[in-house]
Automatic annotation (TrEMBL):
HMA domain residues: 25-91
Protein name from the UniProt record: Copper chaperone
Entries under InterPro entries matching the protein: Cu-bd, HMA_dom, HMA_dom_sf
Residues of the signal peptide: 1-19
One of the protein's GO biological processes: copper ion transport
Listed GO MF terms: copper ion binding
Pfam families with a match to the protein in the record: HMA
Keywords: Signal
Organism: Flavisolibacter ginsenosidimutans
CDD domains from the UniProt entry: HMA
Length: 119
């Protein structure tokens, strides 16, 4: 009986060491240049390709991106830079000018002749 108990105890402690969870962080990033559902789709698809990103949601009306990510694979600055590389302003990081030029008209800022048409 004692041998079985100790065998179980050793087996249990060895498995619990492997079951460590990876640290997940949530960031809310201001994206003031997001205009429409196409912007939402572009940003979400772009960020989902980043290793370590586990969840992405763009709130168009709030002009905010919520991202959950594994801290051992990426960080908030890398995510902001990725948003900027997709052509959108991300908090204090301005959009990459070349990527911004390639955005559809509806995704560009109103001051650049873009935005959703007014009905």
């Amino acid at each position: 009986m004692k041998k079985t108990f100790f065998a179980f105890l050793i087996l249990f402690t060895s498995f619990t060491g492997f079951a460590q969870t990876k640290p997940v962080q949530t960031a809310k990033i201001s994206v003031p240049s997001v205009q429409c559902e196409m912007c939402k789709t572009r940003i979400e698809e772009y960020l989902k390709r980043i290793d370590g990103v586990t969840f992405v949601n763009v709130a168009v009306k709030k002009k905010e991106v919520t991202v959950k990510y594994l801290t051992d694979r990426t960080n908030e600055e890398m995510i902001k830079t990725s948003i900027a590389n997709a052509g959108y302003d991300a908090a204090e990081i301005k959009a990459n000018p070349d990527s911004y030029k390639m955005l559809p008209k509806c995704c560009k800022k109103p001051e650049d002749g873009g935005g959703m048409p007014k009905h």
